[in-house]
Amino acid sequence: IVRIFLQLTLLQFPIPLSSERKQNQLMKITGVIAEYNPFHNGHRYHLEQTRAISGADYIIAVISGDFMQRGVPALIHKYARTEMALQNGADLVLELPAVYAAGSAEFFAMGAVSLLDRLGSVDSLCFGSECGSLKPLSRIASVLLKEPEEYRSALQKELKKGHSFPKARSIALQNFLPGRPDDIDLTSPNNILGIEYIKALFKRNSPIIPLTLQRQGSSYHESALNGSNDSMSFSSASAIRDSIGSCSGLSGIRRHVPPSVFQLLQASYGKSFPVNSGDFSLMLKYRLLLEKENGFAHYQDVTTSLSDKIKKHLYDYENFEQFCSLLKSREITHSRISRCLTHILLGITSEKTEKYTEKDYVFYARILGFRREAAPLFGILKANASLPLISKLADASPLLNETGLSMLEDDIRSAHIYDSVACHKFQASFINEYSRQLVIL
Predict the structure, then answer these.
(1) Mean pLDDT in the chain?
(2) How far apart are CA 335 and CA 332, in angstroms?
(3) Is 428 helix (H, G, I), strand (E, B) or coil?
């Protein structure tokens, strides 16, 4: 049914070839990049404001699959988060391949921006940031892209002092850009990602225009729900996850998520979520024990020294989070450790990621869901994209080369790992990724 719908859509809305598209396309398309873990009021605000400031006819959301950029599993599976996004402002949701979704900020941004860029139809990219100003973020992005010798020297000097990379980079940039406004926090997650998005656009020489909105309400790392008495409160995803993970369950988050999201979470609670890192502890330990003799330095982001440290402390392993804390040091952050362990869990190797980046990062746009009203969008994408749109996994093989199939297999394996653990936790029936249906509203 989905394939027939898409085929009819493409026939009903023919679009000129890409060489003519820029002149003839009257529709504005804006991209957003997100995790929605879970979707909350701040995300709905972001989508509303994105449409307002960009004048977008359609918003395409690129979202992480079942594993997040901090190296943790999603609280709830990607299809539920797709439905949340479509109910609250997105028109089309695409999956960010797992190799980028669980990567560093730079890798995450480059993968997502490359996907939007290769669609050939996206006019702008709108992201939230703590500073809310594009000019200073663009200035910093330019420095990081060009990496002048003076900046590189300053960075190495700070790293030798024992600072973590994010801290060392922040200090080095502050020294290199003395005129930088004091309120641009270079350790704030949304500022960091914003800089990386702009840098990726620069690197690709993309025509996509960056736009930024100032983040509202609680900070990214705020662990407590916003105490405001407003009917709609802006709390961080971290605080919402912590509240759900506590004994109170869903009782405390009603004001902090849109009504449609709360209803979906209510219907899924104890059936498919909440999922957390601890649920993967035994599976991760098995992987570590299995490969102990060979080491782990061939996995993405895992250095030889970290591999040695993992082997040294492996028999002190208790659970996922405890092991991250055990391996953490001044030089390497908890999130970096978590990402590395997730790469080992999912089988994401340096060899694979190097091959992907050398061949232009992404090789397909996998559709997770869309709104029926967005039907004309498929004609535009079909005419202009330089990669295939995948709506059904069974039909993907003829459309992809060897590299693309390898990346898609990584995505499918990651989904099956996630679903296996979640189904075991909630005593639910496993659903093969090939049997999953698109979310259509």
Answers:
(1) 90
(2) 8
(3) coil
